[in-house]
Amino acid sequence: MSNEVENKIKSLRNSTPLKNFDNNKLAEIEINKFFYEGEIIDRIMVVLRANGCEHYKKTGGCSMCSHFNGTPIHKVTDKNYIAQWNSVLDGTAIEKENFKFNLNDYPVLCLYNLGSLFNQNEISLKAIQYIFKSLNNYPNVKKVIVESRAEYVTEESIKNIKDVYSSLVEVGIGVESTNKTVRELCHHKGIEDIQIIKNSVKLLHKYGFKALAYINFKPIFLTEKEAVDDAIKTAIDCFNMGFDAVSIEPTSLQDYSLANYLYEMGQYRVPWLWSIEVIVKGIYEKINRQDVDIRIGGYFDEEVLSGSQGAGFAGRNEVFPHMTSSNCSACTKRYIDGIKKFNATYDIKSLTSIERCPHCYPLWQDIMKINDSRSIKKRIKDIFPDKES
Ligand code: SF4
Ligand SMILES: [Zn+2]
């Protein structure tokens, strides 16, 4: 990893104000539209108020991420996690008025902790077992999606769930890029050896779990075209590694992330939405099939039931991005609607049939031609000139 990048991320981290959240209260519950087994279904997303990503604590974390802003000052204990989870089961966590809530109404549950659910330093095996054991009382929940960095996907962490829960579990793993220079210098991912990721996929499959790859689209220091090519190549590599699905995650800007800092310096722009269809088409073409599971992260029709994330909640939100991937003001909304449709149908026409915008489509075409002959190391040095890279 680069010292400049890490030092800058750490200094931003140190300037992030700490907040004292209620450890017994979830960060968020929302429902969103999701494509599952050929149908559009309601998926429920539960975000635990949690102890935060260890990578962030040790190294400052990834360049595009500020999830740590949602971490409370005081440690979240097993008791807290259990209280949070019970508030989902009994519906007391729901803030939306007159909403009849029953977990059993949702075939897919996302259970997130803004970090790694398989890292015992973030959440104990005991707390996880409690949650999964209770899910046996909700037989209509057919699939649970969780997230973890690859290094915490171990026999122990998988068996801990498998011992008490037999329905489908999918584990989302942040791959970001299979190009080591991009992954380590641009994303600051801290996974130098791709074998760690490959092993995690094998282990998940050994126990009948599914593996989902998160691919960050357009990290800092890359041109738009380089980022598109990197996302396509990474997705293909992920399918070849055995991942069952990929989620393309266009960079969004959260306060105190390095991506946001570079944006404020005029050194970064969030990705263009026009690029998304190029990525999806590129994956289809290279893999020579269209039945692969590709999602575009962050773009689902959502309804927030409680908590502070989501549209309209920016004012009281600790991890809400203040800027997401965009075109121009005339066509961004139209394109986002197209992405939501794609995520609910997996029909590429939802993207390719969007009317080409006269205001920004030609500009994006020109931007895709921009070439930067400098190495990534040189680009970092040019932005942070006073120190060695
Ligand atoms: S992207 Fe994931 S691994 Fe990276 S800092 Fe954020 S939570 Fe941690
Ligand atoms: Zn436009």
Short description:
The chain has 14 helices and nine strands. It has 389 residues and is of the alpha/beta class. The protein has one domain: Alpha-Beta Barrel (TIM Barrel), CATH 3.20.20.
Question: What order do the helices and strands come in, and which of them pair?
Answer:
Layout: H1 3-14, E1 28-36, E2 39-47, H2 54-59, H3 78-89, E3 108-112, H4 125-135, E4 143-147, H5 155-162, E5 168-174, H6 180-186, H7 194-206, E6 210-217, H8 224-241, E7 245-250, H9 258-264, H10 274-287, E8 293-296, E9 302-307, H11 332-345, H12 349-352, H13 361-367, H14 376-383
Helix pairs in contact: 3-4, 8-10
Bound molecules: iron/sulfur cluster and zinc ion (ZN).
Zinc ion binds at residues 327-328, 330-331, 357, 359-360.
Question: Would you write up a description of this structure?
Answer:
The chain has 14 helices and 9 strands. By secondary structure, it is an alpha/beta fold. It has one domain (3-383): TIM Barrel. A 9-stranded mixed β-sheet has the order 8-7-6-5-4-3-2-1-9, with helices on both faces. Strand 3 (108-112), helix 4 (125-135) and strand 4 form a beta-alpha-beta unit. The site of iron/sulfur cluster (SF4) has 10 residues, from helix 2. The site of iron/sulfur cluster has 10 residues, from helix 2.
**Mean residue pLDDT:** 93
Task: Kindly state the percentage of residues in helix.
Answer: 25-40%
- Name of the CATH architecture: Alpha-Beta Barrel
* Helix-strand string: HEEHHEHEHEHHEHEHHEEHHHH
Overall morphology: globular
Overall number of structural domains:
1
Q: How many strand elements?
A: 9
